[in-house]
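Hello Y.,

Per our agreement to keep a running log of every chain we model this quarter, I'm adding this entry. I've kept the format consistent with earlier entries: sequence first, then predicted structure.
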Amino acid sequence: MAPITDQKVEVFANTALGHGIYRIRLSCHRQYAQAVPGQFVMVRPNQQIDPLLPRPFSIHQLIRHKGSVSGLELLYKVVGKGTQLLARLQPGDRISMTGPLGQGFEIAAKVSNIKIVAGGIGVAPMLFLAQTLIESKRNLSSLEVFIGGRTRSDLLCLQDFSAIGLAARVTTDDGSSGDQCLVTDPLDAALAENRPDIIYACGPMEMLACIAGIAERHHVRCQVSIETMMACGMGACLGCAVAARKDNQRYLHACKDGPVFDTRYLGL
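Predicted structure for the entry above:
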């Protein structure tokens, strides 16, 4: 599916969730019904010179009305000038959006024993993934969700997962909510008890590197969504290079080869 470039979309809502986290709802072309979890969009407020370049955001979930996709939702954290501009947008404003872009998560037909792991804002693409898995009508009795953060305020979308019938295992570094440990600790224990078909993960690179090691040790397939800055999102600038394993090609590019990668091919 070819992406729709520089589409002018309307802001439906832009809600502050606290601690610099926002959820923005945008209109989109009906072609986004074909988007898959893990894909992303490039967005830029119109007529802005600084910052010049758009920003990449994972598709958080699709908005459906009477069976058709009428919009999409993005989850973002204010960290710089681009996201500060997004946070100022009001319903009725219009921005430029290109997408859907990149390679999403591969969901094999017979996969059912699944672990979903998210750290901080890395939860953004995982709600869409969980919704898609539930809509597939497969047996998900062995599906487990693990969400971690440095502190309570970093734990996002717990109610959204609960609303679709998934209670997340929660960890925080400081013990302010859930277990006081890294999110990889209960994941490792869960794999030792019941080896899943696959792990899906998104979060800081250090977390993903640890998860990749756990998956390799337990001989479990693992796909991770890489968080990285992108200039174009379409493979033209080659600015989002990530290291591949030494026995493969030297570099991969997050915008075209990813942002979702099988950890067997990454140099984490």
